[in-house]
Amino acid sequence: MSGIEQARKTAEGLAYSTGFGNEHSSEAIPGALPLGRNSPQRAPLGLYAEQLSGSAFTEPRAHNRRSWLYRIRPSAAHPPFVRTDNGAVRSAPFTETVPDPNRLRWDPLPDPAPGTDFLAGLWTLGGNGDATQRTGMAVHLYHADTSMTDRVFSDSDGELLIVPERGGLLIRTEFGLLRAEPGEVALIPRGVRFRVELLDATARGYVCENYGQPFVLPDLGPIGANGLANARDFRAPVAAYEDDGDAGRPVEVVNKFCGNLWSATYDHSPLDVVAWHGNHVPYVYDLHRFNVIGSISYDHPDPSIFTVLTSPSDTPGLAGVDFVVFAPRWLVGEDTFRPPYFHRNVMSEYMGLIEGAYDAKSAGKGGFVAGGGSLHNMMSAHGPDRETFDRASAAELKPQKIDDGLAFMFETRWPLTATGQAAGAGHLQHGYDDVWQGLSRNFRP
């Protein structure tokens, strides 16, 4: 049985615990989870009790993130980490180039070199803030044709929102296993160790690295108690562990710390958690379950109505980063230009396409295609291209179902600075501005 076949067999029928932000608990062996206390004098089954904190101890209870892990070996039992090659991974502050007010668009990453796994295939497009100050975010792309074998990754700088576009992923974490297919997203909290195995011959997608406050579900305000992403649709793993026995085996553990990659070779797998409980946990979410709220009278709503997750800042309503999805939905607005309107925004927007076409941009060669992305920085004018404008302006305004595409956006409070490799990439589209040419003068006094 090939590695892909084995991974697919493992991924079939995975069990989950549901509910975003819940206090989950799970044990792979009955009795492994202590009751009534977190750190007994002797943890059950000879395990080690360990707390993983994603927030300061003293943060308000509603914001506090922590989990208790009961593992075969404590995380403290490891050799020194040494600096390793960063590859194509870059971190904030981004100083290789200057922030660019021009509208930018990229084709998908080219195919990876043979033997490229998820970590080796990470490629940073840009970002903002400062990873050492826990502010801002980064946009990465990934491409891979090989599963991570005897190799584990963790990110001390931020949480990772993984958005597959091509090829499914089996993600083995300290908490258990997640399956993430295109159209789903996986959220890996800061500091959680994981390994990515491929469910198809190749994989490609996007990653938002959030240095700031952890993602939460947005408040609903006048929407009421229901709508947008429902907490019950987020799936957390159940406990599953790797045990190498007394002999052990060498496993490379790579840690991203203050912008650089550090490596240590353990004599065992660190994915050895037999039981756990807490709320600092990974999730997978199916974007097709997003409950779209939209206009049933006139005008296209602001894109904030499509927010799945938000990372709050110190200013209410101003996000460090929002994750927004343009999911299948009905358009029924009367006397309304139905695609997204022409716009200039104090927020900066990186948009990607998972499948199909986006209703404000033309697809095809040289267009906005799956696996590609566009960057519209602070106050840069953008909106529907000429072809879309002409079509939508003349369309018959009968109820219309938008169900042939799935696009998303990472929206952030600060301008995104592209990395040098992104600014000079061969797959950077030249002449992106041309899509708005031909928007002629129609003014008739």
TrEMBL record:
<feature type="binding site">
    <location>
        <position position="382"/>
    </location>
    <ligand>
        <name>Fe cation</name>
    </ligand>
</feature>
<comment type="function">
    <text>Involved in the catabolism of homogentisate (2,5-dihydroxyphenylacetate or 2,5-OH-PhAc), a central intermediate in the degradation of phenylalanine and tyrosine. Catalyzes the oxidative ring cleavage of the aromatic ring of homogentisate to yield maleylacetoacetate.</text>
</comment>
<feature type="binding site">
    <location>
        <position position="382"/>
    </location>
    <ligand>
        <name>homogentisate</name>
    </ligand>
</feature>
<feature type="domain" description="Homogentisate 1,2-dioxygenase N-terminal">
    <location>
        <begin position="16"/>
        <end position="287"/>
    </location>
</feature>
<comment type="similarity">
    <text>Belongs to the homogentisate dioxygenase family.</text>
</comment>
<comment type="subunit">
    <text>Hexamer; dimer of trimers.</text>
</comment>
<dbReference type="Pfam" id="PF04209">
    <property type="entry name" value="HgmA_C"/>
</dbReference>
<dbReference type="InterPro" id="IPR011051">
    <property type="entry name" value="RmlC_Cupin_sf"/>
</dbReference>
<dbReference type="InterPro" id="IPR046452">
    <property type="entry name" value="HgmA_N"/>
</dbReference>
<protein>
    <recommendedName>
        <fullName>Homogentisate 1,2-dioxygenase</fullName>
        <ecNumber>1.13.11.5</ecNumber>
    </recommendedName>
</protein>
<feature type="active site" description="Proton acceptor">
    <location>
        <position position="300"/>
    </location>
</feature>
<dbReference type="InterPro" id="IPR005708">
    <property type="entry name" value="Homogentis_dOase"/>
</dbReference>
<dbReference type="InterPro" id="IPR046451">
    <property type="entry name" value="HgmA_C"/>
</dbReference>
<feature type="domain" description="Homogentisate 1,2-dioxygenase C-terminal">
    <location>
        <begin position="289"/>
        <end position="443"/>
    </location>
</feature>
<dbReference type="InterPro" id="IPR022950">
    <property type="entry name" value="Homogentis_dOase_bac"/>
</dbReference>
<comment type="pathway">
    <text>Amino-acid degradation; L-phenylalanine degradation; acetoacetate and fumarate from L-phenylalanine: step 4/6.</text>
</comment>
<dbReference type="Pfam" id="PF20510">
    <property type="entry name" value="HgmA_N"/>
</dbReference>
<feature type="binding site">
    <location>
        <position position="358"/>
    </location>
    <ligand>
        <name>homogentisate</name>
    </ligand>
</feature>
<keyword id="KW-0479">Metal-binding</keyword>
<dbReference type="InterPro" id="IPR014710">
    <property type="entry name" value="RmlC-like_jellyroll"/>
</dbReference>
<keyword id="KW-0585">Phenylalanine catabolism</keyword>
<keyword id="KW-0560">Oxidoreductase</keyword>
<dbReference type="GO" id="GO:0004411">
    <property type="term" value="F:homogentisate 1,2-dioxygenase activity"/>
</dbReference>
<keyword id="KW-0408">Iron</keyword>
<feature type="binding site">
    <location>
        <position position="349"/>
    </location>
    <ligand>
        <name>Fe cation</name>
    </ligand>
</feature>
<dbReference type="GO" id="GO:0006559">
    <property type="term" value="P:L-phenylalanine catabolic process"/>
</dbReference>
<dbReference type="GO" id="GO:0005737">
    <property type="term" value="C:cytoplasm"/>
</dbReference>
<keyword id="KW-0828">Tyrosine catabolism</keyword>
<feature type="binding site">
    <location>
        <position position="343"/>
    </location>
    <ligand>
        <name>Fe cation</name>
    </ligand>
</feature>
<dbReference type="GO" id="GO:0005506">
    <property type="term" value="F:iron ion binding"/>
</dbReference>
<dbReference type="GO" id="GO:0006572">
    <property type="term" value="P:L-tyrosine catabolic process"/>
</dbReference>
<keyword id="KW-0223">Dioxygenase</keyword>
